[in-house]
Design brief:
By secondary structure, this protein is α+β, with helices and mostly antiparallel strands. The chain contains 17 helices and 11 strands. It is elongated and about 135 Å long.
Length: about 425
């Protein structure tokens, strides 16, 4: 069906849907061989399988009629597993289980799923002792680690612990090893295509291990942007196929991208299985993008720490521009809000007040010599103030700011001069 290993992430995202396109294709092949005009399936009207079967049949054989007895309520009277069991009993068919002690299960090479019984109540914990087929719980797994070595060529697993094997054989062996170590047990509530939620427990030990091993190798080989794109498309691929749209141009296009990314996914992966965990134990590849000289904290031939200056400047430029723009807007808002206190120079008020006090004092007969120490102090303070202004001024920077600050300063100087001359005239000094 596909050079399919490259699509493992998408497959494992739902664990069950990837079998349905194969079944649908085979149904059509047999129908054509037998000259059949219709295909009948036993999927219920609530589940996803009816969609997957029928979309596959429609895509491959649009002329073949589809019969779904569970949706033919005028003819089909059975509405539950209990009804089906009673039907079998009435017709002399003995079943090795009953509805009260058996889960609804689907099993294939990849996994086994469990639904029904206590799982229909999300508040209830799964009865793993009665349920699990491929696995044991992590609590019951061995206290000893299981070491595994795998090799991949162009994304496809080739060897397991040094032995060349078919992919199906590798999956079978990993199901055994993973099951023994409590790997890949998942309790999920899924959102069915038809709109309802359903709960199931999945055992996927081999698939879970393969996905982890494949990821371990890919992160060493693929560049960041390709990995990010693959993750996004992997999720989309899973959704497309989950909805039964395997035989569509979109599925083919996404798969083509994923397969392209596997060209250099070749190498060896080591890991350990321990009580439900998959622990990395080393990865090598001739196409590894990991460069020790670049990754270490020491300066190598390929990288100079100063190279980061220009990169950070450009990388952070949008942030800087945004911050500058926000500051500009904030300043404009402040300037638009008129405030006499902020606009009027307060030192002018103090100047006028001091002049009035001096004038009144002299008018009522206070000797002018009283003000001599204050005058000397004022000269000293003026000198210090001018020195402080000079120390805080950068002529070059002042020129670069433009003519507006210079114009404002000149205006202030003129204003002070005029006010000073007027006060001197009023006081009879000038």
């Amino acid at each position: 069906m596909c050079r399919g290993w490259c699509c493992i992430r998408a497959f494992l995202s739902s664990r069950n849907f990837h079998a349905r396109p194969v079944i649908a294709k085979k149904l059509v092949e047999i129908a054509r061989k037998e000259g059949a005009v219709a295909i009948c399936h036993g999927a219920t009207g609530k589940g996803n399988d009816q969609i997957r079967f029928e979309l596959g049949i429609k895509a491959l054989a649009p002329d073949i009629k589809i019969i779904a007895p569970w949706r033919m309520t005028d003819l089909w009277t059975m509405q539950s597993r209990e009804d089906e069991i009673e039907f079998c009993k009435a017709h002399g068919i003995t079943l090795p289980f009953d509805a009260n002690h058996s889960y609804s299960r689907d099993r294939n090479l990849w996994h086994i799923s469990h639904e029904g019984l206590e799982l229909e109540d999300p508040s209830q914990a799964p009865n793993y002792d009665d349920m699990l087929v491929l696995s044991v719980t992590p609590e019951k797994a061995p206290d000893k680690e299981t070491e595994i070595t795998m090799t991949f060529e162009q994304g496809v697993p080739k060897t397991l612990n040094g032995k060349a094997m078919k992919v199906s054989e590798i999956i079978t062996e990993l199901n055994k090893l993973g099951g023994e170590n409590g790997i890949g047990i998942v309790d999920i509530v899924e959102n069915r295509v038809v709109g309802m939620k359903s709960r199931g427990v999945y055992e996927t030990p081999g698939g879970t291990i393969l996905m982890a091993a494949h990821d371990q190798l890919e992160e060493l080989i693929l560049d960041r942007e390709t990995m990010e794109a693959k993750k996004k498309l992997g999720s989309q691929f899973a959704q497309v196929v989950y909805e039964g749209k395997w035989y569509t141009p979109l599925r083919e296009a996404i798969q083509a991208f994923v397969e392209s990314t596997q060209k250099y996914v070749t190498g060896e992966v080591k890991f350990k299985l321990y009580k439900g965990n998959i622990i990395k134990n080393g990865t090598t590849s001739p196409y590894s993008l990991y460069n020790e000289s670049l990754a270490s904290f020491t300066t190598g031939d390929m990288y100079d720490h100063h190279d980061a200056d220009g990169f950070i400047t450009l990388f952070g430029l949008p942030l800087k521009v945004r911050a500058m723009k926000l500051a500009e807007v904030k300043n404009n808002q402040k300037s638009s809000n008129f405030s006499l206190k902020k606009t009027f120079p307060m030192f002018i008020l103090y100047f006028v007040l001091a002049a009035i006090i001096t004038t009144v004092s002299l008018h009522i007969g206070v000797n002018s010599n009283v003000f001599l120490p204050i005058k000397e102090l004022s000269k000293f303070l003026i000198i210090m103030a001018m020195a402080a202004i000079g120390l805080n001024s950068n002529v070059i920077h002042l020129i670069k700011t433009g003519g507006k600050p210079l114009l404002v300063g000149a205006s202030c100087w003129c204003g002070i001069t005029i006010v000073s001359l007027l006060m001197q005239h009023v006081m009879g000094i000038w």
